[in-house]
Amino acid sequence: MPNTQRILIIGSTGQLGQSIHAIEGNYPQYDMVFAKRKQLDLSDAQHITEYFKQNKFDVIINCAAYTAVDKAESEPDLADKINHLAVQQLAQIAVQQQAKLIHVSTDYVFNGQQHRPYIETDAVAPQGVYGSTKLAGEQAVQNTMVNNAFIIRTSWVYSQFGNNFVKTMLKLGGERDALTVIYDQIGTPTYAHDLAEAIMSMVNSQPFNQASFKSQLFHYSNEGVCSWYDFAKAIFEHSNVQCKVSPIETKDYPTPAKRPAYSLLNKAKIKDTFGLSIPYWKDSLKQCLINISKC
Ligand SMILES: NC(=O)c1ccc[n+]([C@@H]2O[C@H](COP(=O)([O-])OP(=O)(O)OC[C@H]3O[C@@H](n4cnc5c(N)ncnc54)[C@H](OP(=O)(O)O)[C@@H]3O)[C@@H](O)[C@H]2O)c1
After folding, report:
1. Which atom of ligand 1 is found nearest the CA of 43?
2. Dihedrals phi, psi of 121, to nearest 5 degrees
3. Is a pLDDT exceeding 60 seen at residue 1?
4. What is the pLDDT of residue 215?
5. Between 20 and 30 A from 248 (CA), which of 41, 100, 106, 141?
6. Distances in Å between the alpha carbon of 244 and those of 175, 228, 232, 247?
């Protein structure tokens, strides 16, 4: 019998971390350890070193990040510590421990000027601090780990856990008769549960379980395309909330951080490599709304 693989999930209190936790029972073959910020604080390099002196893993899945896109504009150093420097340190530790790494990144590494879905090799040009620090984290992984790291860029993550667009819309839709939502930013929502399933399928896959594999990037979101306006309309339609939604332009909703106008991700590579079948965004939204109604 091979030894049970020990897997660390960092950011276990976030949307993705909790979604992986929720499906832990489907993977009894792994010893899964879920670390919270107080156990492993990514803003503290010394803390990270101490934690890994005491704990060894076969696989590290990093779901933690500084995700406050607008606030990052006024806290660039903290965002850089968590999204870049800590990720570099995790990659160095993974090399020392001979662990494999799955790191999660973002569509905000792109500038959104393109008119066809982004593939993994397309030019990056982040628009703000969050995207820049996440890109620096990706590059640190790739520079430190020639082998044994997968980086997954995803977009517009929502779930029944934490704060996200779906929960904000449900809250505002319950309080107001009418809302305005941006229609000129185009992308695809990602139900964190679907991404969690995809990550665990990758961990369980033949490419990941070779003695060594070449580090590389993958893109993952749900299937389909929408604007934030379409997303809001679908949320209200499928939860029977009576709130009128009107489309507005990005210029009419100024935010500290600039966001890509177009951030569709091409998922062909991840689907082909791991034989994944990805749910359509509206089907996943309906599932999430059912789960939110049970909370
Ligand atoms: N949310 C999106 O729309 C979106 C879009 C594209 C890509 N992504 C990427 O997807 C991944 C997962 O995102 P998510 O939506 O699950 O994020 P989330 O819900 O905001 O959760 C972030 C997690 O990171 C943890 N964290 C923050 N600072 C930390 C620190 N100093 N030390 C340790 N842990 C810390 C948080 O812990 P606390 O609970 O203690 O704060 C939380 O568990 C991230 O890499 C994110 O960049 C997200």
Report:
1. 31
2. -95, 0
3. no
4. 98
5. 106
6. 12, 14, 10, 10
**Model pLDDT for residues 41-74, shown as the tens digit of each residue:** 999 999 999 999 999 999 999 999 999 999 999 9
- Take residue 217 and report the two structure tokens written for it: 């990037």
The number of the ligand 1 atom at minimal distance from the alpha carbon of 165 is 3
Percent of the chain with pLDDT over 90: 98
Ligand 1 binding pocket includes 104 (Cβ within 6 Å): yes
Res. 114: pLDDT tops 50: yes
Task: Tell me, using a 6 A CB cutoff, whether residue 15 lines ligand 1.
Answer: yes
Q: Which of 67, 163, 219 to mutate to test the pocket of ligand 1 (most atoms within 8 A of CB)?
A: 67
| pLDDT value at residue 2 | 58
Question: Residue of the nearest CA to atom 14 in ligand 1?
Answer: 15
Alpha carbons 14 and 16: distance in angstroms, whole number: 6
Contact 265, 155 (CB under 8 A): yes
Q: What is the pTM of this model?
A: 0.97
Query: What spacing in Å lies between the alpha carbon of 66 and ligand 1's midpoint?
Result: 6
The number of residues in the chain equals 295
User: Mean pLDDT, the chain, as a whole number?
Assistant: 97
Q: What are residue 219's DSSP bridge partners?
A: 153
Whose Cα sits closest to atom 26 in ligand 1?
A: 64
Q: What is the 278 CA–ligand 1 centroid distance (Å)? A: 22
Strands (E), the chain: 5-10, 30-35, 59-62, 100-106, 149-154, 157-158, 178-182, 186-187, 190-191, 216-219, 226-227, 244-248
Do 241 and 207 form a contact (C-beta atoms < 8 A)? Answer: no
Can you tell me the mean pLDDT for 21-29? 97
